[in-house]
Write a structure and sequence with these properties.
Length: about 600
């Protein structure tokens, strides 16, 4: 064996070692971002204006208040994520997918929230002369974190997560739901429009930052591993909400959100799983509400009967089921736009019919445009939902009672949806949605499967309608229209399903909460409310077309080019193949 002495020995691959060392060494830009976050935090302890005419009392030195609290939170997040990117021990869990993108979104969120505040001060009070030193410091300080846009992308490939004890996973799940519930409660409880807009800016960019950092995916993986614990934690976090409220002001909004979310989840069966475009779905909610109103002892009811609530709920659900079958049987052989037009017509027919049943234009059943008022409060096993009750030392008003009841109904609907989704029928719905022709060729009875989806979705809406009738105390035809500024209506329900994420459970729940809460909080815009709401939807569909919480299939469909781009690699250098073998393979 001979050795080629003329060949220079291969030098060690120092470039890789240098790059790794550089990646681990502290980066100047990360320190700059952290310094900007610290300066933003410091600015909140200075007065931003000298007058209390601007809401939130930003005149106090040494104590952040109002919108300053949002800048304070954003500053601390910037510091934490920047230190995590520097590799500080104990903070690496914040950025399992890299810190660059997260810091960029946090920098934008801090800038947007702070500049909105100081500009609003100048606009409402009459110029920057009303700024105190803290406003000037904040205005400049939030520009420093924009150095994050100069950072090199440090996104890392997903690695196998480290094993952590079961008790630690439970604590992570509980903490995640507790923080999420607190953030939602804070948004609902915002007392003035400026605070809500600032909260919306920070929450939007903050959610994007958490998603880009990989933290959301890591927590989701832990929750998927402990599904039962996650479900219990979610229910417990939601059940605590009425105990944190001193009045029923925001509990009313929470009940309406739960009703809206329940109906949206029922529509998700039809649209998200079966792929049927239903534009008149709110009519099934109306059928359940009117049925419950007629049999629950209302003084304006055409039937002088008062049935127990559980009986009224069953009758309302069955009535919606019957209407779902009656409408679905002759129309589900249609496809696409034709089916949408027919369902839209059904929704309008329902509204016009109940509007005409006033004794003049039709039989005296629904009192026409006057609706059915004076629906008595629920009374289940002696528990009167219209009275105040003391539970665990906390007084719960009537709306809190309905909130807890609606939460139980939500659990029931989620259970039905999840069981149906994972069943043989659920898989058939997905097959029909993806390709009805191929599914039919495989032996699936498309008409029967779609009719089951239509009937189940209508039944779930009817259940929610029975609770809505007792909660509001009256039902009117104007409550069940295709589109309008007030939810729920068919357009808002469809938007909640699509924007939240079709075919998922969490998606429509989140979409319904946002689509109800945002218009409610933007009421101060008056004539410009729908304009701002429409712009928000356009931006959301532009940057997140698959929905806020999409299923994996939808995410791949909308971002297939990105997935393929990440997989592009330099082809491996291989020795040339034997020409004869290559020719024979080509010929084969």
């Amino acid at each position: 064996m001979t050795t080629d002495l003329t060949k220079t020995p291969e030098a060690p691959q120092e470039s890789g070692l240098v790059e790794q060392a550089g990646a681990k060494s502290p980066g100047l830009l990360h320190w700059i971002v952290a310094a900007g976050g610290l300066a933003s935090v410091a600015s909140t302890f200075l007065a931003w204006t000298y007058t209390t005419e601007f809401p939130g009392d930003l005149t106090v030195n040494g104590y952040p208040g109002g919108l300053q609290v949002l800048t304070l939170v954003a500053g601390f997040l910037l510091i934490a994520f920047a230190l995590s990117g520097l590799g500080v021990k104990g903070l690496g869990w914040l950025t399992p997918g890299g810190s660059t993108k997260a810091l960029q979104f946090l920098a934008l969120g801090t800038l947007g929230t702070t500049w909105y505040t100081v500009i609003a001060i100048a606009a409402q009070l009459g110029g920057i002369a009303h700024w105190e030193p803290g406003a000037y410091v904040a205005f400049v300080a939030v520009l420093i974190p924009l150095a994050a846009f100069l950072l090199k992308d440090d996104s890392r490939k997903p690695a196998k997560p480290k094993e952590i004890p079961s008790w630690a996973e439970i604590l992570i799940i509980v903490a995640a739901f507790a923080i999420g519930m607190y953030a939602v409660t804070y948004g609902i409880s915002t007392e003035y429009p400026e605070l809500f807009i600032g909260y919306l800016l920070l929450a939007g960019f903050g959610a994007a930052a958490l998603n880009k950092s990989g933290l959301v995916s890591r927590i989701s993986a832990i929750a998927s591993k402990n599904k039962q614990i996650a479900a219990v934690a979610a229910f417990a976090a939601a059940a605590v909400f009425p105990f944190t409220q001193a009045t029923d002001t925001f509990t009313v909004i929470a009940v309406q959100i739960l009703i809206f979310a329940t109906v949206a989840l029922g529509l998700n069966v039809v649209v998200g799983l079966a792929g049927l475009l239903d534009l008149g779905y709110v009519a099934f909610l109306g059928v359940g509400a009117y049925t419950a109103a007629l049999v629950s002892g209302s003084t304006a009811s055409a039937f002088d009967i008062q049935l127990p609530f559980w009986v009224a709920m069953i009758i309302g659900a069955l009535a919606s089921l019957v209407f779902g079958v009656i409408i679905g049987a002759p129309t589900l052989r249609l496809h696409g736009d034709y089916l949408a037009i027919v369902t839209l017509g059904f929704g309008e027919i329902f509204r016009i019919t109940v509007n005409n049943m006033d004794g003049d234009n039709g039989p005296q059943i629904t009192n026409g445009p006057n609706g059915i008022p004076n629906i008595p409060a629920l009374n289940i096993f002696g528990y009167d939902f219209g009275e105040t009750h003391t539970i665990l030392g906390v007084e719960l008003g009537s709306y809190a009672n309905y909130y807890l009841l609606m939460l139980l109904v939500m659990v029931l609907v989620v259970l039905v949806f999840s069981r149906a989704q994972d069943s043989r029928i659920g898989r058939a719905w997905v097959a029909i949605r993806e390709d009805e022709t191929a599914a039919t060729a495989m032996g699936i009875n498309g008409f029967r499967v779609k009719l089951i989806a239509f009937a189940l979705g209508a039944t779930l809406a009817g259940v929610a309608g029975t609770v809505q009738a007792h909660f509001q105390g009256t039902v009117l035809p104007e409550m069940y229209v295709f589109a309008g500024p007030v939810a729920p209506n068919s357009a808002f329900l469809l938007a909640a399903v699509i924007l939240g994420g079709m075919g998922t459970i969490r998606g429509p729940l989140l979409g319904a909460a946002l689509l109800f809460l945002i218009p409610e909080k933007l009421a101060f815009l008056k004539d410009y409310q729908l304009l701002a709401f429409g712009l928000a939807l356009i931006l959301l569909m532009r940057f997140r077309p698959e929905g806020l919480i999409p299923n994996r299939r939808a995410q791949l469909e909308y971002h297939e080019h990105e997935e393929n781009a990440d997989k592009i690699d330099v082809p491996e250098q291989r020795p040339p193949a034997d020409p004869i073998v290559g020719t024979s393979k080509a010929g084969a």
